[in-house]
Amino acid sequence: MAEKSFKYVILGGGVAAGYAAREFAKQGVQPGELAIISKEAKKQNSPSNNFSVQFSIILFSCSAVFIGTPSSGCSLFLILSKLTSTVIVASSSGIYITSLIIAAIVVAPYERPALSKAYLFPEGAARLPGFHVCVGSGGERLLPEWYKEKGIELILSAEIVKANLPANTLVSATGETFKYQILIIATGSTVIKLSDFGVQGADAKNIFYLREIDDADKLVEAIKAKKNGKAVIVGGGYIGLELGAALKINNLDVSMVYPEPWCMPRLFTSGIAAFYEGYYANKGIKIIKGTVAVGFTSNSNGEVKEVQLKDGRVLEADIVVVGVGGRPLTALFKGQVEEEKGGIKTDAFFKTSVPTVYAVGDVATFPLKLYNELRRVEHVDHARKSAEQAVKAIKGLEKGQSVDEYDYLPYFYSRSFDLAWQFYGDNVGDTVLFGDNNPQSPKPKFGSYWIKDGKVVGAFLEGGSAEENQAIAKVAKLQPKAENLDALTKEGLAFACKI
Ligand code: FDA
Ligand code: NAD
């Protein structure tokens, strides 16, 4: 089997991979030195897809001209063209011209957050190449051609199934071997499945998870097929809240089910959650808390029909979306590299216990300097910044230049319906809630501070302007004193804006 050799290999073709590639290009990389290996596939674009999208992404297509009648057999002329294939069928009853597009979309690194938001819009939906990295952070959009121009090899539809770190070797599912001098692990996370806990019937058709673009495409097809149908969302975390809104916007009748007393308990206080639950209820979403899905029944086509809950209730469903958490993809490296808190342990430059191997994004457990603690972060801002830091460190070592330690301020955000929140810092200690958190308000704006040892260490804001969001970020970074919680509640956002 073929063997390929590179100076640098990035394993994974997601957010971190794209930002790492841009940083390599900034720092200087020779053609042929860098490869990105990703299992995300080169996709066949179907004829039903929107033409303007196809126009911009077509890499290969062909024109075919059929002449003759179906009964007498066809003579076929194949003409390669850049844009479309046209099939002309001349039969006894006339001439038919049809357009058949056979195109491959190159799934170069893209901004994954789009998949649970604009990708699912019923109108004006985001499609590649619109959201390739680095548009999510206001940067240049790196189209597949960009990688070509820079001599960066994009090896797609290639799942690595074996890693031999002592031998600097990766092996793909098709048996191809890749050698590297430096490896950056950017494999991200995978979804936790209900079948992992043995939930009965969880493999029925129209039960969806969302991680990659293929998952999103399947969901989009189902939304079209089950127009005005019933959807059940299992899980009340990020996926649950964003998908609940997306399916409602698509006019499905949505119910959400989760085990905790309120949504997003990993971050939200009960006060924050009450606003979103109220807002979602006003949109007509039914929220069922304190129970879980224990089984699914399906119809004679194998399509999901009902969701059985632990508390005995049964919900009808044409579509189910499950978001019950993610798991970092580290299995390939088990026993070969130090792990910590479920991720691959790194230093402040994202170097692992194996000196030729770095780990970035969701898989990295890194020193969070601000809190003097090892942490793993499953959010896009850290994926971008950790990737850039690793490449700076790699190139710095080569050039004999020192690089500052990673000094990260945690930043998470989400958007759904007309809502948008941002969070900075750490959600530990006491909390205060301020502002207008009435879900009926025409323009709600409210937030929370987290206070530990008399200092504000975390800040959340719904509906803030760019300046106000910058202000809460500054608070979380500078950790100003706030001993009187009542005064802080009264002052609210003004406290952040004066820092
Ligand atoms: P990422 O998952 O982006 O990429 C991993 C890549 O590795 C994939 O291309 C995968 O196919 C590939 N891969 C894995 N194993 C492989 C193997 N063995 N061989 C080859 N390739 C392999 N965050 C946020 O802050 N705000 C938001 O709004 C959102 N929204 C959001 C929506 C959805 C639907 C998801 C799934 C996630 C988010 N996130 C988010 C989280 C954010 O997207 C996530 O933290 C980053 O994508 C992590 O970047 P990575 O590059 O680490 O992994
Ligand atoms: P999550 O951890 O945010 O939420 C999982 C939810 O499922 C929790 O409420 C949990 O209690 C609930 N749950 C667990 N078991 C359950 C069960 N058996 N039945 C019903 N509910 C159950 O995970 P997620 O929402 O699946 O997101 C997956 C990954 O994608 C995470 O890494 C997340 O950070 C990322 N993501 C982030 C964003 C964002 O930052 N805006 C958006 C989408 C996805």
**CATH H-level superfamily of the largest domain:** FAD/NAD(P)-binding domain
Helix-residue proportion: 10-25%
CATH class of the largest domain: Alpha Beta
At CATH level 2, the architecture of the largest domain is: 3-Layer(bba) Sandwich
Strand content: 25-35%
GO molecular function: monodehydroascorbate reductase (NADH) activity
Enzyme class: oxidoreductase
Pfam families: MDHAR3-like_C, Pyr_redox_2
EC number: 1.6.5.4
What is this structure's SSE topology?
Layout: E1 3-11, H1 15-27, E2 34-37, E3 43-45, H2 51-57, E4 62-69, E5 73-80, E6 85-91, E7 94-100, E8 103-105, H3 144-150, E9 153-155, E10 160-164, E11 169-172, E12 177-185, E13 189-191, E14 207-208, H4 213-225, E15 230-234, H5 238-249, E16 253-258, H6 270-282, E17 286-289, E18 293-298, E19 304-309, E20 314-316, E21 319-322, E22 326-328, E23 339-340, E24 343-345, E25 357-359, E26 364-368, E27 373-376, H7 380-399, E28 411-416, E29 419-425, E30 430-436, E31 445-452, E32 455-462, H8 466-478, H9 485-491, H10 493-497
Parallel strand pairs: 1-2, 1-12, 2-9, 12-25, 14-21, 15-16, 15-21, 16-17, 24-26
Antiparallel strand pairs: 3-8, 4-5, 6-7, 10-11, 11-12, 13-22, 18-19, 19-20, 23-24, 26-27, 28-29, 29-32, 30-31, 31-32
Helix pairs in contact: 1-7
Bound molecules: dihydroflavine-adenine dinucleotide (FDA) and nicotinamide-adenine-dinucleotide.
Nicotinamide-adenine-dinucleotide (NAD) binds next to helix 5, strand 16 and strand 28.
